[in-house]
Amino acid sequence: MEDTIVAVATSIGESSINVLRVSGKDSIKIVNKIFSKDLSNVNSHTVHYGFIMDNGEKIDEVLVSVFLSPKTFTTEDIVEISVHGGEICVNKVLELVLSNGARLAEAGEFLKRAFLNGRIDLTQAEAVGDLINAQSEYARKMAIRGVDKQLFNVISELKEKVLSLIANIEVNIDYPEYEDAIVVSKEMVSDVVCFVKEKVDVLIDDSSKGLVIKNGLKMVLVGKPNVGKSSLLNKLLNEDKAIVTDVKGTTRDIIEGTLMIDGIKISILDTAGIRKSNDIVEAIGVERSKSAINDADIVLFVIDSESGFDSEDEEVLNNIGNKRVLVVYNKSDIVDYKTDILDNYESVNVSALDNESISDLKNKISDMFGLKKIGSSNYMYVSNARQISLLKRCSEIISDIENAINVDMEIDMIEIDVKRLWETLCEITGEVAQDDLLNEIFSKFCLGK
Ligand code: GDP
Q1: CA of 226 relative to ligand 1 center, distance in Å
Q2: Could you give the residue range(s) of every CATH 3.30.1360.120 domain in the chain?
Q3: Measured at the alpha carbon of residue 204, what is the angle toward residues 201 and 210, in degrees to the nearest 5?
Q4: pTM (two decimals)
């Protein structure tokens, strides 16, 4: 990390300003060469008005913010140049910073430096990514808790307890003659492990809520032609996205949109129906429908209440597989209908022509996934796949330790698994992360982050 890096931190498009971020030991020196004022002795966290200059020519009127090491995002000297919006100014200034000694940053490199310099841990870095990519207000709330070290604090508490246990076991093994050392009993090991297990289990259980907040839910509308799928989709999305006609098979391809139910993003797809078709275009749509069902969290199986459940509906049902299903008896304005055949599924009677019954449908979906509860929570959920898999590994190691205690294994043997538990907890916060893993994680960020 000897070199000084630069990147455009804003997304280039139509905007009033763009920001270039420069980080590294030569940040001030490099920007000084192209700025109209001398920055060599300025205080940290100050903003300076002036011009970016190239051989005496004024390039842009800018504001330069100076943040001196170590109290900065990367802990290195950082200079941020706010240039005018549009591609031309920012690219010209970027070119000048590069030609005066900086290197173009790789994706996520600023964040990686912040992590490697101990400014943030890996859970915070991942939360920054989640914050940037947040698709809903709840996703933002969840991510900011991660940025604010809430997960880090929980894991740190667990690490401390496990480490102190390991230290005591080691003292017992290495210095048996010490009379004032605590003699670690299996009960003591068990107490610590139970404490860790309780916290880890809550994090794992709640991660499903975290994933719903982060990714939302995928919902698919299926049903034979003319049951009212497109009409329901339009009502749910409040726009005329799907063409509604009464000619069978009109919806030939997948039509999609998103809506919010109780603060959770729901992506919804209207499928082409799954009946056998000789029409090639329709047949492709049918294949896509099947794969959409595969990806879905919930399938809305729409039935026409007027015509009732028939063999065509049965064919559709057979293609749903073992997905979570909500049977939607549509056209309830004509007749209220329900069949015993579908008694095993959750169901709701609606009319695509009536707004109130669309609210009933949304409430039903909300209840099925406990969305109201998710929205009224403290948002301390893990939603990162890497973190969830490490928590699950902790849980497995804890089972191994419990089994070892149950079969009365010697403490020095049990200690091997206690150490593994500690290492896995350290992996969550990134203390034992390997280079290639770090590269993989940080390369997912945009340039300038
Ligand atoms: P899809 O083929 O399943 O997408 O069905 P459409 O949404 O195109 O609807 C087929 C026909 O049923 C259209 O004429 C709609 O106006 C009508 N329709 C849809 N939903 C309802 C409903 O709840 N009540 C009544 N009475 N007609 C409906």
Answers
A1: 6
A2: 5-116
A3: 140
A4: 0.79
| DSSP assigned state of 120 | S
Contact 122, 115 (CB under 8 A): yes
Question: Which strands make up the sheet holding 17-23, listed edge to edge?
Answer: 46-54, 57-67, 78-84, 17-23, 5-8, 103-104
Report the C-alpha gap between 139 and 28 in whole angstroms: 37
Domain 129-198+397-442 listed as CATH 1.20.120.430: yes
pLDDT in tens, 424-440: 999 999 987 667 667 76
pLDDT in tens, 201-227: 999 999 999 999 999 999 999 999 899
Atom of ligand 1 nearest to the CA of 233: 7
Our separate counts of H helices and E strands in the chain read: 15, 12
CB 18 near ligand 1, within 6 Å? no
CA of 197 to the centre of ligand 1 (A): 52
- With a CB cutoff of 8 Å and minimum separation 6, the contacts of 89 are 18, 59, 60, 83
Q: Spell out, as residue ranges, where the chain has pLDDT lower than 70.
A: 1, 240-254, 272-286, 433-434, 436-437, 440-441, 444-449
State the closest ligand 1 atom to the C-alpha of 250, by its place in the atom list counted from 1.
Answer: 2
Q: Is the shortest distance between the CB of 267 and ligand 1 below 6 Å?
A: no
What are the helix (H) ranges across 327-410?
355-369, 371-375, 385-406
Q: Amino acid identity, residue 238? A: N
